[in-house]
Amino acid sequence: MSIVLYHHPFSRAAAAVWMLEEVGVAYELRYVDILAGAQKAPEILALNPMGKLPILTEGETVVTESAAIGLYLADRHAYGRLAPKVDDPARGTYLRWSLFAPSVIEPGAMAKAANWAFKEGSAGWGSHEAMLAAMESAVSGRDFLLGENFSMADVIFGGTLRYMLQFKMVEPRPAFTAYAERVAARPAWQRAEARNAAIRQERGLDRG
Is residue 67 part of a domain? Predict the structure, then answer.
């Protein structure tokens, strides 16, 4: 069964390319022109009613949401390598930080940037300072989230952190920048960056 990633380099699908490169399986990129609203076309909505990218298909399987795609790929194609096995104590930490990225970092950073008014006890992402402290604890004193072993959690969490640092959405604490440099040194990350850059150039997206 071939893997197809519905993709645009200005969407979260760009990070899914990194996931695929880390897993090391063959895949096809299917370009969706989100700048022209093609993500709302009926054939895309049939796969993801949200009308958003990324969307990954493998045979009859359809997976949306970036973190879910990463977890799916690691379990399906890199189980025990990029995904700790279910009886490995590291599995809990792996899932914890994989889901922390979309459920805490993303809304927490947006809440701070937009000055949202909310009760910290009622919001799943809590206070901004607590979020930063938790992130710092996750990447301090170790190479990756699971210690010496790189996992798909580092693609999900690390990719989110790199994006936030790039656009100055979180403060560049030394532990954050050092960790971001470590994940960016991955050959798979560099291959994904090159592939996304090639598509931007091919589609004329780098022009002012």
Answer: yes
